[in-house]
Amino acid sequence: MSLEVEGRIEKFIDVQKGTSKAGKEWAKQQFIVKTKDEYNNLYCFEVFGDEKVENLTKYQKVGDDVKVVFNVQTNEWQDKYFTSLSAWRIEKTNSDTPPPLQTIPASEVKTDEANDLPF
Predict the structure, then answer these.
(1) pLDDT tens, 59-104?
(2) Model pTM?
């Protein structure tokens, strides 16, 4: 099940790096999104993996309005449980596209019948 939240990126937390039990290097980065909700409006998301960490700050900036699609994950370690919000898609919502053109109803369009083509 995936969930989504819309808000503004407030800050990026420093990249965390480590080595897994299998000896593989890993990296993750967390970032804070604030929604317009009155209560419970801060979310701390994370991305995991070198490519996702690199793309996060490459394409997103503090102050960007975004929609974050994420999964909730809970892991157990030494009888303690840790829950994380794993972002897997981040889309900007403050696009610089122009507003749509106004349409005029066909009944209001005036035509010059004298210049109509015969076919």
Answers:
(1) 999 999 999 999 999 999 899 999 999 999 999 986 555 555 555 5
(2) 0.73
Asked if the model's pLDDT at residue 115 lies above 70, the reply is no
Q: What is the pLDDT of residue 110?
A: 57
Tell me how many helices (H) and strands (E) the chain has: 1, 6
Q: Where are the domains of the chain?
A: 3-94
Question: What is the rounded CA–CA span in Å between residue 7 and residue 77?
Answer: 31
Compute the distance between CA of residue 99 and CA of residue 35 in angstroms, rounded to an integer: 24
CATH for the 3-94 domain, from 3.30.420.40, 2.40.50.140, 1.10.10.410, 1.10.3430.10: 2.40.50.140
Tokens 């819309």 locate to 6
> DSSP readout, 38-66?
SSS-EEEEEEESHHHHHHHHHH--TT-EE
Residue 108 identity? E
Q: What is the token pair recorded at 63?
A: 């102050």
